[in-house]
Amino acid sequence: MAVLVIAELKTAYERRDTLLEFVQTLAVHSRAEPGCLSYRPMLDVDQAGTIVIVEKWQSAAALEAHGQTAHMADFKAELGGVEVSIETFDIANPS
């Protein structure tokens, strides 16, 4: 069973571009991980300081491994002052 993740990152508008740079780097590394089916960061056009990342992972184990990577640790270290909301969903079709 595949896993869908929706992560919402909220920061002050003035910090958005800096956060976006970190998210873009994270996306490059995450897409190269085994089990990553899709990793799509997006800017929320209605909320100026919000970035939404929609991720699809082949399995819960792949998502768990993603959370243990060095690039995730680096990213988490940069999240000071960022409000993070994460929702995960089991989905039947990984395509």
Describe this structure in words.
The protein is of the alpha+beta class and 95 residues long. The chain has a single domain (2-91), classed as Alpha-Beta Plaits (2-Layer Sandwich), CATH 3.30.70. It has helices spanning 13-31, 60-67, 70-77; strands spanning 2-10, 36-43, 50-57, 83-91. Strands 2-3-1-4 form a 4-stranded antiparallel sheet. Strand 2 and strand 3 (50-57) form a beta hairpin. The longest helix has 19 residues, at 13-31.
Draw up the topology in text.
Blueprint: E1 2-10, H1 13-31, E2 36-43, E3 50-57, H2 60-67, H3 70-77, E4 83-91
Characteristic terms for this protein:
95 residues; alpha+beta; Alpha-Beta Plaits; 3 helices
Short description:
With 95 residues, the chain is an alpha+beta fold. It has three helices and four strands, in the order βαββααβ. It has a single domain (2-91), classed as Alpha-Beta Plaits, CATH 3.30.70.100.
CATH architecture: 2-Layer Sandwich
User: How would you state the average pLDDT, rounded?
Assistant: 93
List the uncertain runs: none
Largest sheet: 4 strands, antiparallel
Strand content: 35-45%
Radius of gyration: 13 Å
